[in-house]
Amino acid sequence: MRRSTEAEIIEQYADDESNTFFAQGVEAVVFPESADDVAQVLREAGDAGTPVTVSGGGTGLTGARVATCGGVIMTMELMAHESGHEGFEPVTVEHQGLRYTVMLDRDRLLAWCPPAITLDALDALLAPDLLFPPAPTEQSAMLGGAVAENASGARSFMHGATRRWIEALEVVLPTGELLRLRRGQVVADGRTLRFASEAGIEHEVTAPSYQMPQTKNAAGLFAADGMDLVDLFVGSEGILGVITAVLIRVTPRPTLFSDTAFFATEEAAVAHADALRQAAAEGVPIVSIEYYDSGALRFMSEQPQVKPEHQAAIFTELAADDFDAVEVVAEIIERSEPLDDWFADSNRELEAQRTFRHALPESVNTWLRQHGTDKLCTDYAVPAEAFGRMMDAYRASSEAFLEVTARPEASAVLFGHMGDHHLHVDFLPADDSEQTAAMAEYIHLARTAIGLGGTITAEHGVGKKTLPIESRDVPYLELMYGPEGLDEIAQVKRALDPAWLLNPGNMVPAP
Ligand SMILES: Cc1cc2nc3c(=O)[nH]c(=O)nc-3n(C[C@H](O)[C@H](O)[C@H](O)COP(=O)(O)OP(=O)(O)OC[C@H]3O[C@@H](n4cnc5c(N)ncnc54)[C@H](O)[C@@H]3O)c2cc1C
Q1: What is the mean pLDDT of each run of 10 residues along the chain (511 residues)?
Q2: Mind giving me the DSSP string for 124-188?
Q3: What whole-number distance in Å separates Cα of residue 312 and Cα of residue 338?
Q4: Residue among 350, 314, 310, 348 at smallest CA distance from 329
Q5: For residue 347, what pLDDT is reported?
Q6: 434 within ligand 1 shell (Cβ under 6 A)
Q7: How far apart are CA 135 and CA 60, in angstroms?
Q8: Would the CB of 422 count as within 6 Å of ligand 1?
Q9: pLDDT of res. 323
Q10: Which atom in ligand 1 lies closest to the alpha carbon of residue 151?
Q11: SS (H, E, C) 42-53
Q12: Cβ proximity of 236 and 219 under 8 Å
């Protein structure tokens, strides 16, 4: 197994897309190629008392793969080939110069995948006829990282998060024991899960007693009465074990249509989204409902479709192999009376709308680079009945921040997954005092979302993030689940990782 202690190699894994956390005191990067290699790394680390931090694609936004406690970084990138599995056929894809092998069963719509395959490569492998539906925006993430974070994106409106598509996992526990988990095999008695590793060692863990919000949610360990053991590991941010193989479900790839409707007011756009959501509830195959406020459209003003009178827009995707659904959506659009409507029904137009959507993050990032600053981006979601109040809070916070920046062209943008009542506000501070003001709004909105029964991380997870509250760095999850909730997560971790060596610092501060 390759192992490198070179500073330039360590440097490549020292941060992630949060640009906030940086590795310290790392001894080496190791490159396992099999579950046996992973087990060996973990056993040796256990003997030496060395922390191990697992690295996927490094696209995380919370410092989750960043080895802030030093020790060894275990990069999963060479775990790119799956083999074995009776009844499955090997399928290989070459993507961006790298080769990946997946074991596919086209009849049962199942695929055993290696953790290193990127979502992009998986999509290329499954095309043209099959699809792995969860599509977090960043397709260079690895599948192992997407499972560890229970990643989701715009299409979660129809398809749910990654969790829904995971049938089985192979996991190496921090002790080096191998676990093979199939959905349905180990179900909790209340919240207590009893299971044995392949070595025959028995384990018992009790999931936390907190109630998870009834929204799209990526906060903390999954916990519910009668839960499946697979769900404990999905979204566990790598604190309970290393995922070495994943059995996913795939679907036939549908024909997609998309539409972007531009409105004169925010209210008209919200009403259009409500009508689309209602149609989806009645069975129209709407895949995503995405929102852009006036601040977001200002950032996209170089796009020929955007006009000064557009104050909000709704982007929607439809998976329709029959034309009836297209007609239903066309009628909804007509009734919503947008100022302008852009319907994409050809590959060229679909691609143009995809490019249009990417214009927002690209323009925001360009602005941030020009100002040498970082955005503060919320990831809050609330239950449907509270969404109106959350919109009011977003609006009030954006206005309060605008009073500080006095910069209408670049202050705060509100956009995202309106179908799931999950919007992102990007606050764009240009200096330290604006950063402080943005943080105050960010914390206020976090408390508002929690007060409304929502989550402060619908899709990104919490990693090592904390909030500066009353001179203390408060772990994200403490805000949601209280110190008791953190304690209960810590108990699960300690049951499987007594020496607390795997991914220390994620979810719960390292002891
Ligand atoms: C521009 C941009 C847009 C994004 N949009 C979205 C979005 O819409 N939705 C969303 O959910 N996320 C989004 N993200 C965040 C990110 O892409 C996801 O969190 C993704 O799942 C991270 O995967 P990764 O492979 O890059 O993992 P990394 O960042 O490398 O690691 C993330 C965590 O997973 C753990 N991990 C990785 N592999 C394994 C493994 N095999 N076993 C155990 N633990 C493992 C790591 O230890 C770490 O704790 C976005 C990121 C960017 C940069």
Answers
A1: 98 94 97 98 97 97 97 98 96 96 98 98 96 88 98 93 98 98 98 98 98 96 98 98 98 93 97 97 95 95 94 95 88 97 91 89 89 92 97 97 95 96 96 95 98 97 95 95 97 97 96 85
A2: HHHTTTEE-----S-TTSBHHHHHHHT---TTHHHH--GGGGEEEEEEE-TTS-EEEEETTTSB-
A3: 10
A4: 314
A5: 87
A6: no
A7: 15
A8: no
A9: 82
A10: 11
A11: HHHHHHHCCCEE
A12: no
pLDDT for 345 equals 83
State how far the Cα of 232 lies from the Cα of 228, in Å rounded to an integer: 7
Q: What is the dihedral of CA 144, 215, 294, 275, to 10 degrees?
A: 120
Rounded to the nearest angstrom, the distance between the alpha carbon of 14 and the centre of ligand 1 is: 15
- CA atoms 468, 161, 169, 205: torsion sign: positive
Residues 6+ apart with CB under 8 A from 20: 63, 374
pLDDT at 354: 86
CA distances from 188 to 184, 192, 205 (A): 10, 5, 9
* Helix locations, 337-475, DSSP H: 347-371, 387-405, 432-451
Task: Judge contact between 91 and 73, C-beta under 8 A.
Answer: no
**Residue 43 one-letter amino acid:** R
Total residues found in the chain within this entry: 511
Report the amino acid identity of residue 15.
Answer: D
The response to whether residue 149 sits with its C-beta less than 6 Å from ligand 1 reads yes
Measured from the CA of 65, which atom of ligand 1 is nearest?
48
What are the structural domains of the chain? 89-209+216-252 (3.30.465.10), 256-469 (3.40.462.10)
Using DSSP bridges, classify how beta strands 52-55 and 202-206 pair: parallel, antiparallel or unpaired.
unpaired
Model-wide pTM > 0.90: yes
pLDDT for position 220: 98
Helix (H, G, I), strand (E, B) or coil at 410: coil
User: What spacing in Å lies between the alpha carbon of 59 and ligand 1's midpoint?
Assistant: 5
Tell me the β-bridge partners of 187. 228
234, HSE (Cβ side, Cα atoms, 13 Å): 28
**Residue at 390: amino acid letter:** M
Residue 328 CA neighbour count, 13 Å, CB half: 18
Which residue has 């304690």 as its token pair? 487
**Residue 125 CA: distances (Å) to CA of 103, 119, 131, 425:** 11, 10, 9, 34
So what's the pLDDT on residue 89? 97
